Task: structure prediction
Amino acid sequence: MACTWIYNGILIGAGLLLLNCSDLDRDNLLDPKNMASRTAQKIMIEAFVNINSNPDVPEPPPVNQFMIEALDSLQSMYADQIVIAEYHRTTGSQKEYTDAYHREENSILYQLYLNTLHSDQKGTPDVFFNGTEHRLRGASDKISAFSRLQEILLYQLSVNSSLSIEIGWTDNGNKIVPKITLARLGGTSIEDILVKCVLTTDFNADYLRRVVRKSNKSNIIPLLEVSEMMTVTLPEMDIDRNLENRLIAMITTEDETIILQTVSIEIPPTQ
Result:
């Protein structure tokens, strides 16, 4: 039997999803009908990494491991304010550094970001904040990587958002159907946005805790009016219910290069 789950997250405050906005005080900053409404922006951090699984090549320097360890520390310190996803890529001039969790979609997204930044500097680790708003390349050690990550993050945490987002999903056993609700806060409408979902898996192994396994997106939403709320159903996603997964939802610009708001929820194993 299919079950529907709702995560009462950012949208209009935990426990308020089932209330009509008329039940809120008009000066509530989380109320979409308040023209001054706003909410904290959760920062989306996307790391493009390589964990080599090819025994026939010399093991590369552990720069990716340094970055992932730094991201572990960042997540521990700012768990309520950030979401992290790690996109694994096979790298090397001859694709010799094989990553077992490489997806072609990861390389396509990475190239999109590079094209947007007019950059031909390619490699791992390569970390992006809210799409292409900020980029951090390389890691000489865990401590310096953490310091650089934190510097960018603290700057971005000062920004509020006039978009809210909430995750729901229908559970069909080995598949889930994401149902994402978004709302426009503040006094202006917004045009040409879309909703993306990413499913990450924790393989319960070092450097494999936030591995992107699936992704999909909505059609372009041409207009979200002031105070409008909308629910978008995305295509179903395969999921391994023997492992811990996390469903991440993002509102992005139509070209997918700027992430405007993010939320995530854990999907625990069923056994």
Notes: The chain has three helices and 16 strands.
